[in-house]
Amino acid sequence: MRSLLIVLGVLLAAPRQDRILEWVLKLDDDAIEVREEAAAALVAEGSVALPPLREAAARARGELQERIAGVIRRIGERERLAPTRITLEAKDRPAAEVFAELARRSGMTIDASSLPPDARVTASLAGVPFWKALDRLCRAHGGIRPEIDVNRIQILPEACPSLPGVVADSFSAWLERIVLEEDRTFGVQEKSEILAVTMRTAWEKKLRPVRVVARLIEVRDDRGAALYEEDGRGETDLFEAYPLVPEGIRQ
């Protein structure tokens, strides 16, 4: 098996491919730590590592063959779930035209028909993940924002609000609204207050998450006094003057 892989090395002349061949060899190492490190490195290389892996898998037997097949599966899954990356040049281009190109390149449904004809965008994107590309294009204009629904993204002629949120490679999540509600029970004088926090999350269809988790870090009143906050150990400190509990977060 090792002699076979050495022969493969003659076909892989580039330095990067030499490293890939070395990692393929290490998949047969006696030390599990070395094998795991080599497997992780091959997965990180992506599709460029597939040809030598497939060549090796065709001649390997037993555990080594299973090990190589596992790495090939992991690379395929990683490539399938990789976020769409956008390369796009816009120098004072009509915004509707730019978003139409973004829709073509991403496969996402984007409706920019609400934008005025004179709305223009200047931006340069090179391999930028879709959600970050969308955010950068909107902020490059300064007076437009995305309204994200289940099946489409509508570009509205409104400034992007400064709301807490995150724009990551694979998804976008942001705070949509906070509502303080009174909860009264008939016949009971005491009342309770419920803080309802609504978050919105968006992702590419191929990257649909299994679950979405949000953590409440702190709540302050209009004078800046803490009503709820986490302590340094990640635990919560609830103030008796305002009995807010995590279960009160509706969504």
Describe the protein's topology.
Blueprint: H1 2-11, H2 15-26, H3 32-45, H4 50-59, H5 62-81, E1 85-94, H6 95-106, E2 110-111, E3 120-129, H7 130-141, E4 145-148, E5 153-156, E6 165-167, E7 171-184, E8 191-203, E9 218-220, E10 226-230, E11 236-238
Q: What is the count of β-strands? A: 11
Shape annotation: flat
- Rounded to an integer in angstroms, the radius of gyration calculated over CA atoms is 26 Å
Order of helices and strands: HHHHHEHEEHEEEEEEEE
Structural class: alpha+beta
Percentage of residues in helical conformation: 25-40%
Provide the β-strand percentage band: 25-35%
Continuous helix count: 7
Low-pLDDT parts are: 1-13, 234-251
Report on the biggest sheet: 3 strands, mixed
Strand order of the largest sheet: 2-5-4
Mean pLDDT metric: 79
Distance between the termini: 55 Å
Overall description:
By secondary structure, the chain is of the alpha+beta class. Helices cover 36% and strands 28% of the residues. The protein has helices at 2-11, 15-26, 32-45, 50-59, 62-81, 95-106, 130-141; strands spanning 85-94, 110-111, 120-129, 145-148, 153-156, 165-167, 171-184, 191-203, 218-220, 226-230, 236-238. A hairpin with a 4-residue loop joins strand 4 and strand 5. Helix 1 runs antiparallel to helix 2 and helix 2 (15-26) runs antiparallel to helix 3. The model is unreliable at 1-13 and 234-251 (pLDDT under 50).
